[in-house]
């Protein structure tokens, strides 16, 4: 009991730390002094995130909470700071704060059957570790739990709640319907939240396009064998991929990452020396300290060459038609609509990145990803691609089952070692028509 109260006090202290102006001045000073230990792209990300944290907790800019697949270009373009509670749950797990946050939410009556990313975010609110939002925006895809948990956030903070109803089919009529919703939501936010304006939306979409060009170059470099970027780190930056589009710092982040990968390839300084196998990782990762990735990379010489949630799935934006562009992005997600969309995307990634095996991390409570596991297993088996479903928890290390995960990973790598049949040739038709 004493330990629990100590955790709560530590988290309250963290909240005061986040709200203190001096924290950010000190953080930038430390970043300048210790910057040599960070790579150039890491420094860009740290500076960008620190700047947004300061703006969010100081009240310099309005905060808008959003579910993971709401286009953040909308929020940056209006002049607000996007906060994705699921992403904050990942940060909390990495910082060692997720267990008391999950416990706090369960103490408020939230079921253990609910995805722990959402339970954690609700607990972070209880522990006063979320900035106060001016509004909440969710999309009807891909996650039911996200919509419900963010609705609870809106009720707790007493702020407007908006739902973007994403049509099932990506038709011209669907794009028009969704674009109309985006326009209405943006106009209503400008009326209700001081400091917001529609004027910055073209600029935010232009910034996202610049970041997109740099990011596609990063993806091309990641096809290299051996992999030039450790998948364990790349999975951490999925948070940036989900929440940074439209920010002024994202183009520079991906430009610096591209330069780093080019240099890694030139020097041959690959993170997994003697790479034997290349994996495609589906869904998210456990964000608390885990020996899983160290074991894969150091003991098994196996790279995570790419991640499902790092796949760029939308067309370039048209800054002069921001609503239609963001509607097209929402409707383009490969996880929305028939399961064949996700299967085709995964198959294309297998071919593009020279994948030897596919691992899906089955986060407890994640229906939208785990529910397609059987279809995916059958689909890949028919094409001769080994597939592993790895159960675990993304933020609550108490439910991790690390020992069992390591055992299953070891057996999977042994299977890859024993395979003699080559994968199907590149360009094989994704799904029989």
Structural notes for this entry:
By secondary structure, the chain is α/β, with parallel strands linked by helices. 55% of the residues lie in helices and 9% in strands. It is built from 19 helices and eight strands. The chain has helices at residues 2-19, 21-34, 40-58, 72-78, 85-95, 98-107, 116-126, 144-157, 172-192, 201-221, 231-236, 238-243, 250-267, 292-299, 322-331, 339-352, 367-370, 373-382, 402-418, and strands spanning 63-66, 81-83, 135-139, 161-164, 277-282, 302-307, 357-363, 387-392. The strands form two sheets. Strands 2-1-3-4 form a four-stranded parallel β-sheet, sandwiched between helices. Strands 6-5-7-8 form a four-stranded parallel β-sheet, with helices on both faces. The longest helix has 21 residues, at 172-192. 43% of the residues are buried.
Give the number of helices: 19
Strand order of the largest sheet: 2-1-3-4
- Report the helical percentage: 55-70%
Supply the helix-strand structural class.
alpha/beta
Q: What is the gyration radius calculated from CA atoms?
A: 21 Å
Gap from first CA to last CA: 60 Å
Q: Based on DSSP secondary structure assignment, what is the total number of beta strands?
A: 8
Element string (H = helix, E = strand): HHHEHEHHHEHEHHHHHEHEHHEHHEH
Strand content: 5-15%
What kind of sheet is the major sheet? 4 strands, parallel
Coarse shape: globular
Overall pLDDT level = 91
Q: Which regions are unreliable across 5 or more consecutive residues at pLDDT < 50?
A: 425-433
